[in-house]
Amino acid sequence: MSQNQAANSNANSNSNSNNNVTGDVMTKTLTQKFFTKEWLFEQKSLIALILLIVVVSFLNPHFFTMGNILNILRQTSVSAIIAVGMTLVILTGGIDLGVGSVLALCGAFAASLIAMEVSVMIAVPVALFAGAALGAMSGIIIAKGKVQAFIATLVTMTLLRGVTMVYTDGRPISTGFTDVADSFSWIGTGYLLGVPVPIWLMVIVFASVWYLLNHTRFGRYVYALGGNEAATRLSGINVDKVKIGVYAICGVLAALAGLIVTSRLSSAQPTAGMGYELDAIAAVVVGGTSLAGGKGRIMGTLIGALIIGFLNNALNLLDVSSYFQMIAKAVVILLAVLVETKKK
Amino acid sequence: MTQAILKLSGIEKSFPGVKALDNACLNVYPGKVMALLGENGAGKSTLMKVLTGIYHMDKGSINYQGSDVTFDGPRHSQEVGISIIHQELNLIPELTIAENIYLGRETTNAFGGIKWTQMFADADALLQRLNVKHSSRQLLGELSLGEQQMVEIAKALSFKSQVIVMDEPTDALTESETKSLFKVINELRNEGCGIVYISHRLKEIFEICDDITVLRDGKFIAEIAVTDIDEDGLIEKMVGRRLDEIYPRIDAKHGTLCLEVENIVAPGVRDVSFTLDHGEILGISGLMGAGRTELMKAIYGALPRQSGDVILDDKVVSPITPRDGLANGIAYISEDRKGDGLILGLSVKENMSLCALDALSKGLQLDHAKEATAVEDFMRQFNVKTPSRDQIIGNLSGGNQQKVAIAKGLMTRPKVLILDEPTRGVDVGAKKEIYQLINQFKAEGMSIILVSSEMPEVLGMSDRILVMHEGRISGEFMAADANQEKLMACAVGKKINEAVL
Hints:
The complex is a heterodimer of chains A (about 350) and B (about 500). Chain A is mostly helical. In chain A, about 75% of the residues lie in helices and about 0% in strands. The longest helix of chain A has 27 residues, at about 240-265. Chain B has 17 helices and 22 strands.
């Protein structure tokens, strides 16, 4: 967005002024719009990410290498994809604690389909559809049953984890050693143009949801619903449909994350995705989206997920124990929230 | 003149880009009611926030009981005897009246336990003084808005306040509640309290106040005794120009039958029928709680109807959701801008186009250019004062917010426009602009229902007036035959027999 605006204002000032003053006008518009205090504040999470990368690059020469960056992005892709769905839900003023369980159940479901040698072209859409249905179930409980999102998804989280345990009998489900299993493993381990497939998926998910939020009615209604539900309802918008929609999308994306995880390990773990809901919420919050709903940007979530991913990797490279990593993550989240609150 | 108990002089306060206060002054005299007047954005609220220390002034002085003071928060100013009763009450519905009055300063025994008996007794004594007929053990949420306001006043009294500031106290009150509020103000005045009374309702100012301070654009304009000025002169001082006629009624001939409402029964509405012609303005008068808003929401589809039909241009539409109502050409502009009218965190553009996005999309995709053009058109037509269409609407003044709210309804091109309290919390200048817009829609043949608690507004704008009382229509008048007394009589449920009058 901001780069677009930059390009636009450059073009405008070029065409509107003669050569002598072009430079002046350009710097003026640039400083007016882009290097003000407010602008810097808006970009704080991006700035934090860049700072993090620069500092760690100096501390460890292995950090800023193509191999390591791709590695980090691939590792981040699962939590980032879940965080995208979570952003939509949080923008409407809700929360979805059930994503980790949806991930595990859909992963297990897909693994058993693949083990039965059901074609990938069928197994993948079916698993994604199951994710949408499970997400929509939370949405229906919230919208039609008028249950608070936290409680409703606490229920689905527990329920679906239980269903996963029953379905898998508490044991991992292997995708087997067939040709179908081989082609399924491409989702988690394959490369396209030298870039791991999960990264492509992450990029596609972010781009699609960015488009959804900024260029469709549905996206506008998501912000409106989070801003003021009563006013949105009175404006003739089918609020229940929007609510069920965001939880369904959140479910699809959790299922997609489940496919990536299952595909990478060639088996589905019944305990997969535990605690992922909290990582996703952390990424959303670090990205500057308000838990109260109505305010936030999807690209903020990408940056939030990357900050957490890069931080984990950096601490690994710097030989910091995983126990300290948790503390570091907590500090980052706290800082992000404090800075956000200070603005108000 | 007696010595002022509180003297604010030469107050200056700037925010980034705006000078909100520029040499603002206010004197409060013991035993007198001082009105603080000005258009929205004139700096009244900012001045009050400077007084209580929520904002720090850039320049100026506050003199209280003869010495210069600065307060570092409302708590501090309240402790020395300056209380503010805000437009939005700061009370907790789930607690009892007494708990609300003494919140944060409960008297406790040696173990830190609250001395309940004493607290309830003290609170009851305060309530009795204010003629509130409730036990202080009752939950605050069970009280009417007017009674809740009385609790705020009781709280101010419990601080032994010397100065009480009331910010738009009658905005949410019924006529009878207003009467008892005025009684209390009179008593406080007799006890030597200094009162600052902020209101848009000029009639009230002349009824209850002794002196008037006028602010305009953050500047002190005048301090006048009410006896020395009339309503027109006051408006002139507030807006800095003369407003010839507040209610510019146009007498256009109205057309054929447009809307028929038949035997509507809904929560708070008991069997209401009426009709509305094309190009007619139908005023709906009545007291708070008479069921006016409920009736309008039932017609629009926002409240469930138990029975009854809505017929528009000979077609039974009977909407069951707001979406239905809009699709059939009925638009409803809410009385409660902050509650369910606007989304304050979104921009002017996003609010204005919210109902009409279906028409502003190509397939699944929003047509940003078309949306911007439509929004800019309305902003120009409505003279919305905002730096840009991307401005967060919460930052606009009440009048400009209301214009956007009306534009939002009009974007759906309705046949029937329902305006519920369209000028509540709107300053005089913007009020006139809104009236002119309503007249313009009327001239274009739109049918308009104007719900208002301000009787002069209903009388001045409508072609025909219905009065509601306890969920029923208790009177119907042609504008020419109506006056405030007749409307009031119907509003309180006295059936008027025209023949007898």
